[in-house]
Protein 1
Amino acid sequence: LEPSLHTLITFTPELALRMAEDADRRYRAWRRADSPAEEALPPLLGIPLMVKDVLCLKGVPCTCGSRILQDFIPPYTATAVQRLLDAGVVVLGKTNTDEFAMGSSTENSAFGATRNPWNPAHVPGGSSGGSASAVAARMTPAALGSDTGGSIRQPAAYCGVTGIKPTYGRVSRYGLVAYGSSLDTVGVFARSAAETALFFSLMAGHDPLDSTSAREAVSPITLPDEPALKGLRIGVPQEYFIPGMSAEVEQAVRAAIAQLEHLGATVQMVRLPHTEYALPVYYLIAPAEASANLARYDGVRFGLRAPAERLWEMFDRTRGSGFGAEVKRRIMLGTYALSAGYYDAYYAQAQKVRTLIRQDFLDAFQQVDVIACPVAPTPAFRLGEHTDDPLAMYLEDIFTLPANLAGVPGLAFPAGFSAAGLPIGIQLMSAPFREEILFQTAHAYQ
Ligand code: GLN
């Protein structure tokens, strides 16, 4: 499938084979032991995993979908990846992504676009499109992603798989190449809520290597045997059903909510009144933080260096030839918003509105346990459909950005299909650190 889908930037067959042989040796030793039950095997021993190419794995290139990091080999491993390695996974490769995770279609990768396995004329979503496509195509049971404004949930919806964007701070960002540091989260795609929950719970938890890592304890996630949701209060925000969204998406999401009600949940309307500001606020804060984070790619410290006579010329040429168009657009937006005289009007103002958006969610979670809504306004669009229109591309994120601005967790999972046979997803959000209730609800539905 790989030649037609292009899910990977780096395929690591030798590494995978070595890890698989290790797993096999461990398993055989365990079976030979006198009292095999005494020494438990690691929970994911021998299970394949793909890793989005914005997460570091020692000794394997980490390109972030960019020419500027084409030859960068990280000397360390991201905490999220390390915890899964400790749990026994076998890494198959590093998955394709929009350059520095900026995009909603995986078309912004310097190494070519990924395709949607349900229809290769369509995008898999993005920026974690390689991971979502690979899980949907059953090339791997699970794959890691990152979500700054929807990059796990939207591709999960477009590809018909399950994906979790954890609470901000829940999974360590150590070893995740920074995009918008106050929004970035590390999460995972798998085939079901139950499998996604397993990977998530092994990655989550405090990490002294990430100063924004949360200290909240992580308990193992228990999933109900019975698909019953008695007592669960679901809120449906009217602001997430907007004119211009696809009727098929609205129908599928409303039908899934009716099914959750049938399983015993109560459904009520909730209000998230500042939703309309999420898009402009996000597209100020994310580029502002990105412009600062991307200043480090100067040709001196990492990856690409374009030769030149003078230092500034070297910076110019390296950044000019190393970054793609979307990344340059974000750096310009971000540096503009942060410049002297504009900072208060743009960045500082956006931060204030962000607080109002977060407060909307905290208020809503006084009344309900879970918010249910669409993931994206349309099913997967065609390759090239939005490439000349950045604003149309940004609109795909309208229902996913608020969770990142508020720091709350979001889970996307399949709710149906369009008439054209493309998957449609539904999104559940909860109060911070209540991922378990998202998994329980989706598991009951599945
Ligand atoms: N599409 C959004 C952006 O381009 C979100 C991407 C992400 O979550 N990494 O910024």
Protein 2
Amino acid sequence: KQGLQVAIDGPASAGKSTVAKIVAQRFHYIYCDTGAMYRAITWKVLQAGVALDDEAAVKALLNQITIRFEPGTPVQKVFVDDTEVTLAIRQPDVTNAVSQISAQSAVRAELTERQRQIADAGGIVMDGRDIGSTVLPKAEVKIFLVASVEERAQRRLKDNAAKGINTPLETLKYEIEERDRKDSTRKISPLTQAADAIRLDTTSMSIQEVADRIAEIIQEKE
Ligand code: C5P
């Protein structure tokens, strides 16, 4: 097997994808953003005008589409079939609907399967909510990233400004808390720290410090 499986989980806007990308580059591992996969099917559901709670129709739609990643800077490109959705899946309409789609058992079963295939050969950094607990229970490295709601909302505010999205801080805080609540209380593989995961509170850490810490943990296991 070429390289380890590294699972990075945690609540919304905890810096998972930023850090996961840096770590993946450092070890020449593949990076897989599982949140982008849940966002991609949510985007498709909204596009198709399918009701968010029509589980049979959502399932049928997911079975019809491919979700692909392509390298890109500063962010990986995401495609649903031949349509690039990199920016579209970060818009508030998708962000605020995604938890309702990701709670559905058929969606989770299908995407978990696709994620396991991507991670099968090792040499992967995968970020999400249930990677260490459900998708890759045997991952050699499991990290659970947390940060205060205030700090996460501030980070999101900055990210959004760069994308031309102008949601106020108070709204962001509310949306982050709502998404965490829905993701943590859903019936199937809720957001939770795996028993063997290492918890890192990044509230007063820089991105580089977090990435360095995770790199150390990987090096100890490699
Ligand atoms: O990580 P990101 O914020 O892009 O994830 C978007 C949403 O996708 C989460 O709020 C959650 O509902 C869902 N998700 C999930 N399981 C994962 C990754 C994301 O349910 N492994």
Protein 3
Amino acid sequence: MNNKNESRRKFLTGSAAVAGATVMGAAIQPSLAQEQGYVFNPPAVTSMEIVGSSERFPVRRVFCLGRNYRAHAIESGDNPDETPPFFFIKPRDAVVDSRDGFPYPSMTSELRYEGEMIVALKSGGSNISEADALDHVYAYGVGLDMTREDRQHEAQALSRPWAISKSFDKSAPCGPLYPVENHGHAISGRIWLSVNGDIKQDSDLDLQRWSVPQGIAILSRHYELTAGDIIMTGTPEGIGLVEKGDVIRTGIDNLGEIEVRVI
Ligand code: MN
């Protein structure tokens, strides 16, 4: 129990204790930040638990794939024969431990779940070929791309960016990562999500429009990818809304399942 709690505490903030102490003593002693040459303490490292290891995966950037399943593209109003998937971004500290409970966010009354597979990179580069792409994958996992649906629809109607609908605080509750070296690559397998026990999403990784190698290759034409980057690979059909008190479960074959309580 202690180890588990310790692990959860470290999920977000490796330097939380140091930062707290600095705030408390700021008036009477030089802060850690000043000793290091910063005007305030650097941001805490966001990191993810790794199954079978006491080490953690430090997150650099969070890329997300939109409309990467044909049936979800259709339910979202796209014609998948004409419109390819696309990318957007969440801030790294949107990644939080799925076990901590998901606080219903501000500025929305339509909170949507999207169950997704996560790809975690151990290396990167630019213009990565599809043939080489899987060599850069460290691990896979399960997570949620939580969305303020009302804010998204407003943005879409005005042809404005989606940022506040997708990149809000704690918008990516995630489970632990399953390293390739022990668990292999997650190329096919059932991906599902339930709310209060009712299955809402039920698909297969086979149905991704851009496979993991394709997604990495395409993304690397736009950004230089690096170790620590994670990619949320999109959600299948069956998206919907949740309320405070709802319990979301989502899982992928061989990558376990997570439970997220909306609080
Ligand atoms: Mn999504």
